[in-house]
Specification:
- By secondary structure, the protein is an alpha/beta fold.
- The chain has one domain: 3-Layer(aba) Sandwich (Rossmann fold).
- The protein has a 6-stranded parallel sheet with strand order 3-2-1-4-5-6.
- Helix 2 links the parallel strand 2 and strand 3.
- Helix 1 crosses helix 6.
- The chain starts with a strand and ends in a 16-residue tail after the last helix.
- The structure holds flavin mononucleotide.
- Flavin mononucleotide binds next to helix 1 and strand 5.
- Belongs to the WrbA family.
- This is Trp repressor binding protein.
- InterPro entries: Flavodoxin/NO_synth (IPR008254), Flavoprotein-like_sf (IPR029039).
């Protein structure tokens, strides 16, 4: 069965949303589909007005219940910068995931990140690891994602889908196809993506921390 991907983002001024749409195009280019969700706004309308923020559009559903994500095999998360950190809107979402923490509801899911910052300095902050696509918005937010930044976001979506499609969620048939297409060099040597195969599969269900099926190192 084809893997299910969700792109979840918070975007106050639209930069992250534009990148999210590019990530979606990349996933579709790789032959997949995905659903877009927005993390809920936490600021009152009065504050948003003072920040010259347009407010969330209703064309993309708001992700209120994190359990919705349990049905997906992988998530791409769009995260703008707030004072060198990630926004409180995202924190409010994560603070609702106690149920998934307790049940392991997100265990084994794939995840990726894309970001937007005003400046390159913020992009280098540790918050940004692991690396993903990104866009600079400039101090006043006037700069829009460039064609190159959108291309990188599209490539991230495409590659993310391929990795998920070749991972535990994939059917044997999908894995066979993807392995033949992507992982074999002309000399027949194993490539980096082979080396990145989830260890879980190689160690008969035991994660690297020793607990059965608790950790998967990508
Ligand atoms: C309250 C606030 C704090 C911000 N802090 C930073 C920051 O520390 N570093 C930075 O590069 N950009 C910072 N920015 C700029 C935003 O990260 C940038 O405008 C945003 O990524 C644009 O994404 P969006 O249009 O999807 O909301 C800040 C913006 C706001 C509103």
């Amino acid at each position: 069965m084809a893997p299910k991907i969700a792109i979840v983002f918070y975007s106050m001024y639209g930069h992250i949303r534009t990148l999210a749409e590019a990530e979606k195009r990349g996933i579709e280019k790789a032959g997949g589909t995905c659903d877009l969700y927005q993390v809920a706004e936490t600021l009152p309308a009065e504050v948003l007005t003072k920040m010259h923020a347009p407010g969330q559009k209703s064309d993309i559903p708001i992700l209120t219940d994190p359990a919705t994500l349990e049905q997906y095999d992988g998530f791409l998360m769009g995260i703008p910068t707030r004072f060198g950190n990630f926004p409180a809107q995202w924190k409010a979402f994560w603070d609702k995931t106690g149920g998934q923490w307790a049940s392991g509801g997100f265990h084994g899911k794939f995840a990726g990140v894309f970001i937007s910052t005003a400046s390159p300095a913020a992009a280098r902050s540790p918050r940004r690891l692991p690396w993903g696509a990104g866009s600079f918005a400039a101090g006043d937010g006037s700069r829009q994602p460039s064609a190159k930044e959108l291309e990188v976001a599209e490539i991230q979506g495409e590659q993310f889908y391929k990795v998920v499609n070749n991972g535990p969620a994939a059917s044997d048939e999908n894995k066979k196809t993807a392995t033949t297409a992507d992982n074999t060099t002309a000399s027949g040597n194993q490539t980096a993506s082979d080396a990145n195969e989830p260890k879980e599969k190689k160690s008969k269900g035991e994660g690297p921390c020793g607990l059965p099926k608790k950790c998967v190192v990508q």
